[in-house]
Amino acid sequence: MMLPAAEKEKFQQLLMAAIDGELSAEEKPQFERYVREYPECHAEWQKYLKLKEVTQTMQFTKPAPEVWDRYWVSIYNRLERGIGWIVFSIGCVILLTYGGFKMIEAVVTDSKLEAIVKIGIIALIGGLLIVLVSVIREKIFTARTDKYQKEVQR
Amino acid sequence: MNDTPQPERQQDERLVSRCQAGDIQAFGVLVEKYKQRAYFTALGLTGSHDEALDISQEAFVRAYRVIAGFQAERSGFFTWYYQILRNLCFNFLRDRAKRARPFSEVEASENSLQNIADESSNPAVIAERNELKDAVWRAINSLKDDDREIILLRDFQDLSYKEIAAMLDCPLGTVMSRLFNARWQLREKLEGYLG
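Structure tokens for the assembled complex are given below, as produced in the milestone run.
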């Protein structure tokens, strides 16, 4: 007797639960009926049991104990460095902004400089500022729309 | 989905609250608690000790950076952390597969990482090796990422179906169906060994 096609998926699910010891009390008689009544189900069960026998004895090699000792320290260092870089970046932005402002002020108030030179210097600083703002905006936008970011905030 | 035992979950929730208040030492406690599970999960997916160590640590770093947005009442800490870890692992595998192939082949076989011969198929990561176990490990590594993942979670991490369902954010029936498909693939590859 062949297992009806409509029951195949149910049997496959019960088969997995049976070999993993996850059958519920209600599912157990249902699975036993499949195995008893359909020889193909019995044969399938035996094949998957063999596979399970091998995989359940497999384990990964354990790393040296020192690996575990250094594990948290390494994470802590990475976190600390990350904070360090943020603080460093803030410092750079503040100093560059202040320096840029002072430079523009000096250029504008310098009566010896020709107008064309003043325009050139202001355009240079202005252009740099636009690029800087654009890069920062892109970084922030990428962080907000990052697929990975969405997935972790479940 | 509630996948962690209640007292343990409450303890994690308290630690997460402390982390969200800026207590990095509380995060250290969470790391100590889950580091082995994290490392072995990454080892199973990447097949490399160094990468598993680096990726599992990087996942903890990223978890800490976004922990303010984590809602501990919705899922367990490790379940949430696992999403970060698996994304990093799969990104790593994708990058490694791309590096291992000439550029022209990349687009043609975007989803067939299984054919790439690399260090992940090295059975040295398996304890108490023999010919059969080596063959099984190679076969596991030749599976598609999703198939390999579910076998590793069940047979190597020894997680219950309920825990797997929570970690993969899918119903129990899907876990069983995915396990069947993955094991069917594995059995096909090991036909000569298992008879």
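Chain A has two domains: 5-55, 65-149. The longest helix of chain A spans residues 65-109. Further analysis is deferred to the final report.
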